[in-house]
Amino acid sequence: MDKKALFIIPPERFNEDELFQPKEVLENEGIKVTIASTKTGEIIGDYHGRVVSTVIFSQVSFKDYDVIAVIGGSGTNDYLWGNQDLQDYLKQAYEQKILLSGICAGSVTLVNTGLLKGRKATCYPVDVQMNVLKENKVHYVSEHVIVHRDIITGDGPEGAKEFGRSLVKALT
Predict the structure, then answer these.
(1) Which of left, alpha, beta for 164 (phi over 0: left; psi -120 to 50: alpha)?
(2) What are the pLDDT digits (tens) for 85-110?
(3) d(CA 169, CA 27)
(4) How confident is the model over 12-33, as a mean pLDDT?
């Protein structure tokens, strides 16, 4: 399979389960995963896990990827939710029919684009995230993964493997 995924993480404090579990699922199916952020180099997760961001998301063409996933973690709230460059990037990718996805706080990042207005989505079940869904007229559903043909959302670490499997299924 010649499919490619771009996983966008915050420049610090990503959630390890939400990154590593779906990444492993995709790679086990032959899908190449590129880690991107707002900076390159080593990034430390919420629980001191480490990963290397090889590209800055805004410096690579979304057209080179079959799916873009925004990964959660405490840093996602701080660095990605309100990142206008990321919002624009995701909207442009959507217009070009690139599959978008987000898990936990990454789901909220997608919700902030306005692309899920009037639709169902999931996120980590905490008020700060669920309130953003409500504010954007998105119906929160308490499930591990919500799949639309064009956008997939996941709830968090508990649903991370299922999120990965949903991405694989959508790409095959």
Answers:
(1) alpha
(2) 999 999 999 999 999 999 999 999 99
(3) 13
(4) 98
Enter the tokens of residue 64.
């080179």
Percent of the chain having pLDDT more than 90? 99
80, 86 contact by CB (below 8 A): yes
Cα–Cα dist 105/37, whole Å: 15
Q: How far is CA 138 from CA 9, 72, 117, 164, in A?
A: 23, 18, 5, 22
Q: Where are the beta strands (DSSP E) in 38-164?
A: 41-44, 50-53, 55-56, 67-70, 99-103, 120-121, 139-140, 145-147, 151-154
